[in-house]
Amino acid sequence: MHGNIQQGVRFLLAAGLLWLAPLPGHAIGGQDLFEAEVPVTSQQPAERKAAMQQALSEVLVRVTGQRELLHSGRVRPLLEDASRFVQQYRYFTVPESTPPQLMLRVRFDGDGIRQALREHGVAYWGGAERPDTLVWLAVEERGRRYILSSQDDSVAYQQVRQAARQRGVPLLFPLMDLEDQAQVRFSDIWGGFFERVLQASDRYDPQAILIGRLNLSPSGSWVARWSLRVAGNTTAWSDTDSQLAGVARAGIDNVADNLASRLAVTDSGTVGNRVNVSVEDISTLAAYARVTDYLASLTAVRQLQVVAVTGTSVDYAVQLNGSLQGLTQTIIIGTVLEPAAAESPGVYRIRQ
Fold it and tell me: Which of 53, 188, 247, 262 is 20 to 30 A removed from 148 (C-alpha atoms)?
């Protein structure tokens, strides 16, 4: 088998097929990062123009991870001429809405937006860098207590999912089957006893874990406490809002801000560092293809070249857009590769 992988990759090397550019990576979990929906009251051109600007604003926040960007002058030219990025749009009515709610769905040119952000020196947060976040959320409202699950149909679940979609944060929810129920109780989350929650998370193999408690106070306000764990680091915060949608959005906004601050890459258009990356335990052509496609899809990677194959190890020469530290952090948080050894920087193996 080792000989087969070597022969296969060496054939591609000889054929000159192993220079790779980054893959687009526009979609995550079935969601197009460059598509947005906004409510409208008519199909008049003036309202359509304003709605397209609103849709582009949502997309720009999603793909940069920067809410404050809209208040700066760097993207104002993009918003003023939003229609030039539009690939297609259509109107539709929300099913069973009363009164009928008209919506405009707009899909933008992802490559064009990415190029414009590069020209303005704005960081970009690609689809390949968006880790799956497992959510353990305990909710208390009007005497009812429950933990959100993947089969949930509650309003809280819908609001959290909607907020995550707007920011492009892929979420996982626990099954809350007998196995989960045996390990995690409502009181564990509510009381901040997270050890059991983290242990129960292992079966889902998440890249990030969001633990929260959400309750409706006697005054009618929603209060939330959140704890986000990424790569061994924990960040905690609280949110309060008069509306459930507002407190859910605030929580997910902080998750997106945190992840983007770690993983977004500023592609200045100039040639970055050239580094060597080795990946071990590649014993099949399918594994080779998976690793190579993954590396090529990362925003931090401008160009990728296979330079050597030794046994089950493949050596890559990587031309960077950002820093080596940014590339390393992205790989560590991801699900495809893991460091082979702490004392061997730049050497990885396939995650099992």
Answer: 262
